[in-house]
Amino acid sequence: MSTPATSVIIVSRGRPEHLKLCLSALMRQDHPEMEMVLVADGAGLAQAADMPIKPVRFESANISEARNLGIAQAAGEIIAFIDDDSIAEPTWLSRLTEPFSNPKVIAATGWTRDRDGFRWQSRAARMTAAGLPVGIDMSAEDTVLLPPEGGAPVSTLGTNCAFRADALRDIGGFDPIFAYHLDESDVNMRMARAWPEALTAIVPKAQVIHARAGSLQRDAGSVPQDLAAIGRSAVLFARRHGGAAPADALARRTRRRLIRHMLDGEMDPMHIGGVMSTLQAGLSEGRAAVLPSVPDIRRDHPPDFLPLPTAPAEHIVLTGWHWQGAALRETARDAIRGGRMVTIILLTPSILPHRICYHPGGWFEQTGGLWGPSEPGDPPVKSWRAGDRFARETGLAKARRNRSALSCVGAQRLL
Fold it and tell me: pTM of the entire structure?
């Protein structure tokens, strides 16, 4: 089965350190024919100065305009998107683009992990004309291909999605009226209207870890600060697509979310009213704004495809106790220099939940308690013998980072 040439577009503004990790992980993709287009501010472009990518400088806070600049440079048959604060699993892009071998597939989306690397942040949903997601019940193992249903297309999360380039250009790309929020959902709705029989692939195993870093809308802990842009986009989306007025439903959802942050000790109760007022201001702005017509067809002439070197497939898993971390990291550095992909798993004799991060050295590093939970659905505490726990976590790491068991090396453990 051939894998289509794919352009990956990354938009970045004000987050150079997150972007650096994102780009490093993308350089380790196992996709055989990919290029990267980086649309970023000056600090972001500096992170990619020595990388074989297509750079585009852009300083404005408008995600749709930035993505359209990326589309103009994208020479791939498929165009994929990932946020600058996300880490792609090495198999992400190859798994995400595989369904496009079916000519009826026009878009694809994967499942996205939260900042701890294990909990689910986003899985499968449809997008309604009111701009609200409705979950789809499906297996975590199997890819499914779905058409729009009742006018509601599959929702493709902006940090984990891909489209046929021709189709994306035919609908005019992204609409700049959605500077933040629902930008990709507007694309989903317009594609569904243009091609009501086309399919969107939901690929659970195409995974990224989304840190939800700080921005104009939220602080570093992902607590909302200013929701005006969300309110504005919500009203414009409903106006364009004939959905019910979103104000009441969005306000209820937002207030519940803010109260959860308050109960978790992340938000001062006195700040809830102020944040809600920014949402109301955005809703008012959306009602008053002129709603332009949808974008015209794009006739881009991108420069030649700029392929990245194919990443090596060999993957090793190093396991040990947390006090052996320094030695395992040295082993990892040697393996990285030798062209391998590495995962380190470090356990503590505790019930701490597991976390995983992408280390600046170029490997995935998982930490947590011997008896603590890792994957969603794990109990808070479970009795484990060390050997069994190392074996279980090694198997899960291989499943996430290898498309075949033949492409990896067995776990190596420090005793």
Answer: 0.94
